[in-house]
Amino acid sequence: MNAFHRTYHLMAETLAPDWRVITKIFGGLLGPDFIVSTGGKSYRVGSLTVGQLKRGIPAEDLDMLEVDPDTYEAI
Questions:
Q1: How far is CA 2 from CA 8, 12, 14, 16, 45, in A?
Q2: For residue 30, what are the domain limits?
Q3: Who contacts 19 (Cβ-Cβ below 8 Å, separation ≥6)?
Q4: Which of 21, 32, 37, 40 is the most exposed place for a label (fewest CB within 10 A)?
Q5: Measured between alpha carbons, how far is residue 12 from residues 18, 25, 60 in Å?
Q6: CA–CA distance, 53 with 39 (Å, rounded to integer)
Q7: Is residue 24 part of a domain?
Q8: Confidence (pLDDT) at 59
Q9: Does 71 fall in a domain?
Q10: pTM (predicted TM-score)
């Protein structure tokens, strides 16, 4: 593996998001809600927060409602 490939893999690992969308819930007045997982916890967020996560804002800086991963009810 040459230096280019090592750099490429390190950059890809660094830029990879540390969150993922688990499910999308329709029927809200303000659009769909999303259940996202980050840091071993699940949160219920709106599309604005998902957009902020996509832009690279750290999950720790956002106000997110933690939910039970089995029932998606607020903790």
A1: 10, 16, 19, 21, 42
A2: 18-75
A3: 36, 37, 38, 53, 59
A4: 40
A5: 12, 30, 21
A6: 13
A7: yes
A8: 87
A9: yes
A10: 0.72
The tens place of each residue's pLDDT in the chain, 75 residues long, gives: 577 667 766 665 555 668 889 999 998 788 899 999 988 899 999 999 999 998 888 888 998 999 997 888 888
Give the C-alpha separation, 51 to 70, whole Å: 24
In a domain, 4, yes or no: no
Amino acid, res. 32: P
* Distance from C-alpha of 75 to C-alpha of 66, rounded to nearest angstrom: 6
Query: Is residue 41 in some structural domain?
Result: yes
Contact 74, 67 (CB under 8 A): yes
Q: Which residue has the tokens 């967020």?
A: 45
